[in-house]
Amino acid sequence: MTFSPKKDPFDLFSKWYKAVLNSPCKEPTAMTLATCSKDCIPSARMVLLKEYSKEGFVFFTNINSRKGKELTENPKAALVFYWIEFSRQVRVEGDVKLLYGEKADEYFFSRARDSQISAWCSKQSSVLKNWQDFKQAIELKEKELYNKQVLRPDFWMGFCVIPKVIEFWQEGEHRRHTRFRYILVEEGNWKIEQLYP
């Protein structure tokens, strides 16, 4: 199976992403997020895409987590979407912008109340010596906020990966995959290259 590139990579991403959302794919929004510390030590984990536009790809997290600290120290990231049901992969590389205020509030308030409380109580990426400590912190926070709105913690933020490179990969038979790479030349203008599989 092959595909033809579009002039704008976001148009192609939208086409692929909508197909995945309308399929039985278990985690269509899942993406690998790769970051790097200021000491050039890489790390990667799965996060969920919450929205995208021509500005970039957005996810939310605790800014005190390992990924939050690395993105603050070294505001560059890579993303990988792999939709096995479609034999497709999208890779993104770019700079990172912090999202806070109204944007972060909007997402936080859309979450389930239990998830909001857990966000307050989790010292994400820190060592947890006893699960009961976390459980107790949740119970205390639930009592404290009984019949009250759960406000967003200051440390709960969004990040937007602003792409400089986007690559689309479609699996083919006998390792004859189709790959197109988009490189941002200037705002809204992309150089398109086909790559060997």
Strand-helix topology:
Blueprint: H1 9-21, E1 30-36, E2 42-48, E3 51-53, E4 56-62, H2 66-73, E5 76-83, E6 88-99, H3 102-110, H4 113-121, H5 131-144, E7 156-170, E8 178-186, E9 189-195
Antiparallel strand pairs: 1-2, 1-5, 3-4, 4-7, 5-6, 6-7, 7-8, 8-9
Helix pairs in contact: 4-5
Report on this structure.
The chain has helices at 9-21, 66-73, 102-110, 113-121, 131-144, and strands spanning 30-36, 42-48, 51-53, 56-62, 76-83, 88-99, 156-170, 178-186, 189-195. It is an alpha+beta fold. Strands 1, 2, 3, 4, 5, 6, 7, 8 and 9 form a nine-stranded antiparallel sheet that branches. α4 crosses α5 (131-144).
The low-confidence runs, each spanning 5 or more residues with pLDDT under 50, are none
Which sheet architecture does the biggest sheet show?
9 strands, antiparallel
Question: What would you call the shape?
Answer: elongated
Helix content: 25-40%
The topology string of helices and strands comes to HEEEEHEEHHHEEE
Keywords:
alpha+beta; 9-stranded antiparallel sheet; 197 residues; 5 helices; elongated
Offer a concise description of the structure.
The protein is of the alpha+beta class and 197 residues long. The chain has helices at 9-21, 66-73, 102-110, 113-121, 131-144; strands at residues 30-36, 42-48, 51-53, 56-62, 76-83, 88-99, 156-170, 178-186, 189-195.
